[in-house]
Amino acid sequence: MRFIRRDNYQDSIKNAEIFEGKTEMQGKHLGFYTNFNTTAGEEVLVKSGISFVNIAGAKENLEHDINHWDFDKTKQDARDSWSKAIANISVEGATDTEKTIFYTAMYHTMIDPRTFSDVNGNYIGADKKIHQTKNFTYRTIFSGWDVFRSQFPLQTIINPTLVNDEINSLLQMAEYSGNAYLPRWEMLNSYSGCMLGNPAVSVIVDAYEKGIRNYDIEKAFTYSKNTVDNTGNGELGYSNKHISKTLEYAYSDWALSIMAKSLGKDDIAETYLKKSENYKNIWNNEVNWFRAKDSSGTWLAWGRQNRAWPRLYRK
Q: What's the mean pLDDT in 54-76?
């Protein structure tokens, strides 16, 4: 963090304790404050660099992004950057209000997955070691279940480079974590396991089928297959007491079969295409809808409470 003026004093805070004159600290629950003697209306500029690797990376990132003290230029550069990003879609025949709503929503689709590597390519892998990438940007915060149906299919059209970045990042995480399967909901190199299904598989298959392939394709297929084998409908052919899991896993089995077919792996394609039909195992003609079963094959009671129970069904 840098200030345009150097006549300030700074104190650091750790666990609510003040350390006077301390400009660098390490640990958890950290903070700082600073004071300047200013005249009425005077503004003090501050800029900061961020790195998930080290302080040197933060300094290099800051110098790369803002190597000056021109506030108006920084503001305009940010506007130009976002204007360029949202210009990938042109809206016609809409009111100004409708355009504002549309482009605000479009902006929201571009917040994550965010950059995790430094400008020099360094990043912290899932093995907690420093790695370097030269052909893609390592990214984090893949909220898979939230984004595989809409955000990522959209990005394959308006920002295929980001999709390619994310696939490479997922593959690196599967490798360096030692898990050899894809995370469902990744955040800062952690397998949070949030929500359900195998959304990373469908993201990879969607990208591959659309020609986005600047990554290790065989590794992508292997980790995708490992993922559906690791978390799927299993020998029952459905997920115990869970509608949504059954449907999600059947879908990712189908997605894997599509990629296998494209890669000429016909036997694997046939196996997972058949598994993708497991959704039929929880269709109930009596209620004319999907209905959860327990491990013995007994239908769970039908009613508003069970249909709305999150463990059974998530929309």
A: 97
